[in-house]
């Protein structure tokens, strides 16, 4: 009888947990979730995976990605000091109580992001790497497109409420995979359980670390609008999955639901070799496989629709940025970018991210991908509503042994839409031409 009572009690408790998990997926309008095999990209579970949601502090995963990219390229080091502006210091909690005029190292900033989820540190990073919050947010969005996160838009580096800052569970799963694949040398930051700054210790908000077998990160998030969010990476028994839960009612129910998803689906993960869902390249991610993004590969045009010269920036000696203590290039002089349009018989296989839509417009061709991304961000900023529904991407081509990067916007449904966008851009002194996919 005692044994039967214990079994019944265990079943009752288990039923409550399962009921709570089911409630997350059905009765909660904010809920979205996905479990993905990180080796193959196979979706093992999904619910509202492509529905727009607020990322909250999952935003800081992309902030960290851009820090890792800068570290890997040698532009900064872990000891590089980040200045703290009055704007950064004024960010509301959670924070690490930074003050105007303070500085912290890149290493401290990353630890503050992944443990305390510090908003003041996130803004300091944004101003340091991007020159301003807005510019850094544009860089984040451009990088999201490059990684195949087609439904994500960033407006800040921390995830505090902004009605235009949206993502999806699927996009956050892609970012989770990209962080682990592209920067394994820095990924261990997400396993940090505590962080001490100015003699104060901050614990990690991710309670699954060390408590659920195989969990090695990644990030929690919460705002009133978003609900309780969590992205988890799990590696155990030769299997690897990522799982994302958005819109939990409480942190406890969110964690219980995540633990249940891991328990259910980890054993369904493959045990073979990684197929590298998001391709690697020197200096970070350069392309995303077509399977990760809806739509078709963008074919190279057979001829220019209009004869015109695109622009690219000539390299120049680095100068000091006002908000940074490291040298960054600031382009000035414009030179013609020779971007040959190959014939159908000689066109190489298209490179770069796959892209949705029927027509593409190209605004520049540059020797540096960073410059191409910056140009895309600046063009978006200048163009206003003209490019509101377009997706920025880069594509590579070679000439004379040199690799160039096309800066393009994709997603135009018709010739008139694409040509109309180009006409509007030309009025703003931005060169442009349109081609059909």
UniProtKB/TrEMBL annotation:
* Transmembrane helix keyword on record: no
- Which Pfam families does the UniProt entry name for this protein? Peptidase_S11, SPOR
InterPro entries recorded for this chain?
A: Beta-lactam/transpept-like, Peptidase_S11, Peptidase_S11_N, SPOR-like_dom, SPOR-like_sf
GO MF entry, a single one: carboxypeptidase activity
| SPOR domain residues | 353-437
In the UniProt record, the signal sequence range is: 1-21
What does the UniProt keyword field contain? Carboxypeptidase, Cell shape, Cell wall biogenesis/degradation, Hydrolase, Peptidoglycan synthesis, Protease, Signal
Q: Per its UniProt record, what PANTHER family does this chain match?
A: D-ALANYL-D-ALANINE CARBOXYPEPTIDASE (PTHR21581), TRAFFICKING PROTEIN PARTICLE COMPLEX SUBUNIT 12 (PTHR21581:SF6)
Q: Which family does it belong to?
A: Belongs to the peptidase S11 family.
State what protein this is by name.
D-alanyl-D-alanine carboxypeptidase
């Amino acid at each position: 009888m005692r044994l039967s009572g214990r079994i019944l009690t265990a079943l009752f408790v288990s039923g409550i947990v399962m009921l709570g998990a089911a409630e997350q997926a059905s009765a909660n309008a904010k809920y979205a979730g996905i479990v993905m095999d990180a080796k193959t990209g196979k979706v093992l579970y999904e619910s509202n995976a492509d529905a727009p949601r607020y990322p909250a502090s999952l935003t800081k995963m992309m902030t960290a990605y851009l820090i890792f990219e800068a570290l890997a390229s040698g532009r900064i080091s872990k000891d590089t000091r980040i200045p703290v502006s009055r704007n950064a210091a004024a960010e509301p909690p959670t924070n690490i109580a930074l003050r105007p005029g303070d500085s912290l190292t890149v290493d401290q900033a990353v630890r503050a992001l992944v443990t305390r989820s510090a908003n003041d540190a996130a803004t300091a990073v944004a101003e340091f790497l991007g020159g301003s919050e807005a510019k850094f947010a544009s860089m984040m969005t451009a990088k999201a497109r490059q990684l195949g996160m087609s439904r994500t838009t960033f407006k800040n580096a921390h995830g505090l409420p902004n009605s235009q800052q949206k993502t999806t569970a699927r996009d956050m799963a892609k970012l989770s995979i990209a962080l682990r694949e592209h920067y394994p040398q820095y990924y261990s930051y997400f396993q940090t359980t505590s962080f001490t700054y100015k003699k104060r210790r901050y614990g990690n908000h991710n309670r699954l670390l060390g408590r659920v077998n195989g969990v090695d990160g990644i990030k929690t998030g919460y705002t009133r609008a978003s609900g309780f969010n969590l992205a988890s990476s799990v590696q155990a028994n030769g299997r690897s999955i990522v799982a994302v839960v958005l819109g939990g009612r409480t942190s406890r129910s969110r964690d219980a639901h995540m633990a249940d998803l891991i328990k259910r689906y980890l054993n369904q993960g493959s045990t073979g070799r990684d197929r590298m869902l998001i391709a690697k390249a020197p200096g970070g991610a350069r392309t995303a496989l077509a399977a990760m993004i809806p739509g078709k590969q963008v074919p190279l045009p057979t001829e220019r629709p209009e004869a015109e010269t695109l622009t690219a920036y000539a390299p120049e000696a680095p100068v000091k940025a006002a908000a940074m203590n490291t040298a960054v290039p600031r382009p000035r002089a414009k030179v013609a970018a020779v971007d040959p349009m190959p014939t159908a018989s000689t066109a190489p296989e298209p490179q770069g991210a796959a892209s949705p839509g029927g027509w593409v417009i190209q605004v520049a061709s540059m020797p540096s991908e960073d410059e191409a991304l910056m140009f895309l961000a600046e063009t978006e900023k200048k163009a206003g509503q003209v490019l509101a529904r377009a997706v920025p991407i880069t594509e590579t081509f070679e000439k004379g042994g040199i690799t160039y990067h096309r800066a393009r916007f994709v997603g135009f449904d018709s010739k008139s839409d694409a040509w109309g966008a180009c006409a509007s851009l030309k009025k703003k002194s931005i060169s442009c031409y349109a081609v059909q996919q």
